[in-house]
Model the fold of this input.
Amino acid sequence: MDLRQLRYFIALNEHRSFVRAADAMGITQPAFSRSIQGLEQELGCVLVDRANKDLRPTPEGQVVLQHALSLVQGAALLSHEVTRMTKLDAGEVRLGSDAVAAVHLVPQAMARFITTYPKVRTGLQVDNWEKLGRSLNREEIEFFIADVRHFEADPNFQTQALTPRRNVFFCRAGHPLLAKDSLSTNDLFGYPLATPLIAPGIRKVLANLSGRIDFAPAIEIEQFAALASIVLQSDAIGLGAEDAFVTAFASGELNVLHWRNLPHNLDSLNNRCGVISRAGVRLSPAAKALIETLQAVESQADWPAQTSRSH
Done:
């Protein structure tokens, strides 16, 4: 018994004709018939009711058919997995990204990657770090880009640092705070704060600055476009990655806020961007190549993040 015989038996069940099935499999009808007979001899039973013009499988044939489908599909999956793990001219790679990296870094890297490896299919899941972590554990993605501080102490994950993303406070043009000569953090907490899902470390910093035991933003929203829209139409203050709002800052629609009693480059308020994957799990060549592409895009002198950090 071999997979070829099982494929022929599956084809016979689909076409219900030795002639049509043999033609579909690209062999002569006598050779096809001998293969089916050989399978029957190997198993010691009749698989097809030849007295029936529809050539229906016998009860034994039904059992063999179910296993044949499973074995042939399993062999195809095995071949696909081996190809994915060993070659870069086929297969697919699935990754995740938080909203910050999805603005510039990941799209640019994916564009360069598919130009270099056009036959590799690439799938992207954009979500917050909590959901991406669950997707990684379920093996729905091979790796993702997000703030590494949630995962670097967990032995189930391994992390690889990328360039941190600067988070800034901002408001709409014409906001009452812009009329003041100097701003303190007391001014910050006089207005609703709108943010993406923030790291516990950032939440702790905000709690300390506000003098509270804990701090929860008035609005938490992952969509940067929606976050900007809310800030533009209200007196809410936004907190988010500078990269995500570069265009709005340049046009003057949104304005970066600076607090005199808050360090300008307080690291704990920034997004510590990095690659997160499962510990002890070998990444596919495609995943490794995509991570290398992410790193190469980051090193470009004209990359938007480089420009924003120079301000």
Summary: The chain has three domains: 3-86, 96-163+278-309, 167-269. Confidence is low (pLDDT under 50) at residues 305-311. The first helix runs from residue 3 to 15. The longest strand covers residues 92-97.
